[in-house]
Amino acid sequence: MQDRPTFSRRSVLATGAAVAATSALLTPSVATAATTERSTSKVRPTVVLVHGGFADASGWNGVIAELQHAGYECIAPANPLRGLPTDVPYLASVLASIEGPIVLVAHSYGGAVMTNAAAGNDNVKALVYIASFAPAEGEQLGVLLNKYPGSLIADAAEAVPFTNADGSTGTDLYLTADKFRAAFCADLPVATTRLMQATQRPFSASSLTDVTQAAAWRTIPSFGLVAGEDKAIPPALERFFYERAGAKKVIEVPGASHVPMISHPKTTARFVETAVKTVC
Known about the structure:
Layout: H1 9-26, H2 30-41, E1 46-50, H3 61-69, E2 73-75, H4 84-96, E3 102-108, H5 109-117, E4 124-132, H6 141-144, H7 153-156, E5 157-163, E6 169-175, H8 180-184, H9 190-198, E7 203-204, E8 222-227, H10 235-244, E9 249-253, H11 260-263, H12 265-279
Parallel strand pairs: 1-2, 1-3, 3-4, 4-8, 8-9
Antiparallel strand pairs: 5-6, 6-7
């Protein structure tokens, strides 16, 4: 009579483990397939951040750091600040170079540029206004600034002539050293605001009289952040813009000056993320 083979507990466990490992290599698990499907089902948008006048793209540094930590691709182009006829096509060309969905964020005058440049671009999924203009067709920023009291910009601005490429004379607007902090960034340390004033980028006075040609917020979902102590664009004007645009969400940052993306970068970044998660 042939002996019946004997198996130790150790050999049974080893054999079972080998079979299980081989099976796992040959056939992907349902869980793995489901995870892969979820990870590829949504493409994260590129977040494009547009600065306004008297500033540059570095004003978004704190917000970008937060968004990059959360895994978002960010681009903060240099807004030329030469007026809507120049700045709008420039930003539109930047947007056209980006593949996939875009969430567009803008501050101050940058909101007017964004409002025009995003029109007709199907990749732009949301407009996020941060203490920003959101004009309608036919409107001028200089007129809008007088709609509600409270702006200190007119008193703080200094006009400086410059020569255009065609030889004509233009006018740049700067904020004077003695009024810069009060009008622009009163909630930041004095040492910081002195640097900001010294390195400010002026914007062309024509920006205040240029006529808005398109209002992208009519077709693209918008979101708005109100700076509670804004002395550049009155908070009442920001609320008016966001309400008129039918913003999906509006928040107010109490005590914030005109630059909440600098003084409150975490709050601003979380608000941008709210917009992303709402539309993407």
